[in-house]
Each structure stands twice: as C-alpha cells, then as structure tokens.
Amino acid sequence: MRANRRADTSLERRIRTTLHRRGLRYRKDFPIAMGSGRPVRADVAFPRARVAVFVDGCFWHCCPLHGTLPKTNTEYWLPKLAANVDRDRRVDAQLRNLGWSVVHVWEHEQPDDAAARVAAVLEEAEVEVPRRSETDVT
Q1: Which of 16, 31, 61, 110 could crosslink 56 through cysteines, CB 3.0-4.6 Å?
Q2: What pTM value is reported for the model?
Q3: Helix 10-21, helix 111-125: angle, nearest 10
Q4: β strands within 4-119, DSSP E
Q5: Other Cβ atoms within 10 Å of 59 Cβ, number
Q6: pLDDT tens digit string along 41-54?
C-alpha cells in the first residue's frame, strides 16, 4: 500500500488540469477544519464558494459500478473498505453541516464530465469563484 499516493495522483492532476483549462482557480490538498481533531483534506477546494472535491478510487471507496471486492484476506479488506465508505459519509455530513458543498469524482469518470459537475456546483454556490483574468498569461 506504500505505492498508493495520498495526494497528487494522476487522476487528481487530470481533474485539476481540466478545471484550470475552464479558467477555475482552486486550492489543492486543502485542509478544512472540522472542529476538534484533524482537519479533512479536500483534493480540490474552492474555499470562497465552500465547495470541496474529493477524487475517489473505485476500489478504495467501493464504487457501485466498478468497485471490486478482494478474493483473498477478506477478513481484513471488507471492514477496511466499509470503514472508508463510512468515513466518507461522516465527513460529507460534517462538511455539509459547516456549509460546504461536497463533490465526489470517481476514478472512472472522464475529467471533462467531472469538471462540468464541479462547475455546476460552483454556479449554484452563487459566490464569485476566482477565475483567470483576461490579462493573465498562461
């Protein structure tokens, strides 16, 4: 499991690149204080609009379409994967109680589709999201 990165996975980079191409400016691996305890780190966040984006792997977060269950060592893996899903639900509820919108992007989603979903949530937030200005040079 050491090879599994916590941040900056290739999928996260593709999503961020697509968001950036749309002119959206965000924070990556952004810590969100949840009261007492450790902060939650959103893979991509729009703090002003209070939108948190989590990029989830189909295996680790039990995707209903592509998630697979291990055939060996199930007494270890089944509780671990169930705990991941439970933690995701708890964190989502806590963030929503704090006024954040939460978007989960599955690893099987096309980056353009995921970016469109994120952009739609940002539009609903009715807060000005930092965008690339006309004078910015890329």
Answers
A1: 61
A2: 0.85
A3: 60
A4: 27-32, 40-46, 51-56, 101-106
A5: 17
A6: 999 999 999 999 99
Q: Please tell me whether residue 101 adopts helix, strand or coil conformation.
A: strand
CATH class of 10-124: alpha beta
Taking CA atoms, 88 is separated from 33, 82, 99, in Å, by: 16, 10, 17
Angstrom distance (rounded) from CA 11 to CA 107: 7
Q: Residue count of the chain, please give it.
A: 138
The token duo for 43 is 């893979």
Residue-wise pLDDT for 62-77, tens only, equals 888 887 888 888 999 9
Strands of the sheet with 101-106, listed across from one edge: 27-32, 40-46, 51-56, 101-106
